[in-house]
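task queued by scheduler; priority normal; single chain, no ligands, no partner chains; default sampling; output format set to structure tokens
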Amino acid sequence: MAERDGWRCWVCDQPVDPDKSVNDPQGPSVDSRTADRKAKVTERLAHRGCNSRKGAVKVVIAWPDHLYVIEPAPLITVAARLERKGGRETVGRCPTRQDAQQAADWLVDRFSRLAPTLPVTADIQAGGGQFLVTLATGRR
């Protein structure tokens, strides 16, 4: 599982040191999270400090500080909806096309690790003096 995840924490997207103690907050741990009791539980690599403890701790995927996104959507919720229904979802607004493109590129890259079985594409739409960033996937 750690090899599959590339020794990266699925929550914070930072490297996990395999040599750290499992009792260290930065040490490796196995996390299994599911929003639906009927869903197949997928085990993922996480830092011990990031571990959701089988969903008992609400996971928040942080947007990076270098992206200028207004009203960013909670990415765990976006991933869950896209996995369940497919389609597309607006994830944020940006003041410039360049900011929107940076956010779109980051989102596609981040979702490749956050939800590896969910292929997403990003789209940018201009309107009202701002740029909407949307993620899309095929219908489920």
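post-processing summary
- The chain has a mean pLDDT of 85.
- The two ends are 26 Å apart (CA to CA).
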